[in-house]
Design goal:
Elements lengths: L7 H12 L12 E6 L4 E5 L12 H11 L13 E7 L10 H9 L4 E6 L2 E6 H5 L10
Parallel strand pairs: 3-4
Antiparallel strand pairs: 1-2, 1-3, 4-5
The structure holds tetrahydrodeoxyuridine.
C-alpha cells in the first residue's frame, strides 16, 4: 500500500491490525508490526508459530520477507528499499521491542526508527543509536 505522510499513530494502528492476524497458539503472545519503507509503502507482518517451537518466526522478520517479495523486479544484490521505521505492538500498554535477531535483520535494510507504545503513548527510538549501536552490516564486509 502506498501512502504519503503516514503518522506514527497510523503505523501503530496498522500494526494492531496485523497483530489480529498472528498465529501464536503456543506463546499466546500475538505480535503485529508494520514497516514504513522509503518508497512510502507500508508492509505488515505478524508472528507465525509452529508446533516445532524453534521454527516460529517473529512479526518483524515476516514483515521484512513481505517487503522483499513485494519489492518488484530488481537485482538480487539490492532490495530496492530501505526501512524508514518499524512499528511494533505486543501486550497492550507495554512496549514491544524487537528481539536481537530481528534487530539484525532490520539493520540489513537500514532501519532508522522503532515506534512502540507504552501506557503513556507512542515512543520513537533511533535505531542505530539506541537499539543497535556498533552493529555489523553489509558495508562491514
Ligand atoms: N515475537 C515477535 O514476533 N516479535 C518480537 O519483537 C518479540 C517476540 C514473537 C515470537 C513468539 O512468537 C512470541 O512473540 C513470543 O516470544
Amino acid at each position: 500500500m502506498a501512502t504519503s505522510a503516514v503518522t506514527d499513530a497510523q503505523l501503530i494502528q496498522q500494526a494492531r491490525n496485523a497483530q489480529a492476524r498472528a498465529y501464536a497458539p503456543y506463546s499466546k503472545f500475538p505480535v503485529g508490526s508494520v514497516l514504513l519503507l522509503d518508497n512510502g509503502h507500508v508492509v505488515p507482518g505478524c508472528n507465525l508459530e509452529n508446533a516445532s517451537y524453534g521454527l516460529s518466526m517473529c512479526a518483524e522478520r515476516n514483515a521484512v520477507a513481505g517487503a522483499i517479495v513485494g519489492s518488484g523486479p530488481r537485482g538480487v544484490a539490492d532490495a530496492g528499499f530501505t526501512i524508514e521505521a518499524v512499528a511494533i505492538v505486543g501486550k497492550p500498554g507495554e512496549p514491544c521491542f524487537p528481539c536481537g535477531a530481528c534487530r539484525q535483520v532490520l539493520r540489513e535494510f537500514g532501519c532508522k526508527r522503532v515506534i512502540v507504545e507504552d501506557e503513556e503513548g507512542l515512543r520513537s527510538f533511533k535505531f542505530s543509536e539506541e537499539l543497535l549501536p556498533y552493529s555489523f552490516g553489509p558495508e562491514s564486509l
